[in-house]
Amino acid sequence: MSIETRNVMVFKGTRTTDKQRACLQEAGFVHVTGLREYDSSAMECPIIGEKLRVEEYGKWGYHHGLVVIVTQGGEIWLGTCVEESAIDTDARFRNLCLNPNGKGAFVPCSNGTQLSTKALLQRIANPSHGLVYPE
After folding, report:
1. Cα(76)–Cα(16) distance, rounded to whole angstroms?
2. In the chain, pLDDT over 70 holds for what percent of residues?
3. Which three-class secondary structure state does DSSP give residue 133?
């Protein structure tokens, strides 16, 4: 598990570098670690990253048009409009060693659940919004 749920969301993994974040954002990814998914009836679902397994670190996944990259440090980044084949071949991802362990990560929001617009906009503006990184 890469997060700890409290009154604040504490990220217990390793934060991506500014260069890695810029690459992910440029490619259309949003940092979704710690955000809550909702189903079509607005029922709360698990928090993204709450059930992340160490085996998923450094992997990516693709399902129903969504791509997820789980960094080696446990951050979860979600994107669309990225071809599945590009994840292993795109030099931007390969050179930054974002997903050296290949395919095999769970893809949040790919089976009818969704994120709140407010939460997404906050994370687009600031990928760390709502997260605390221990020193």
Report:
1. 10
2. 84
3. coil
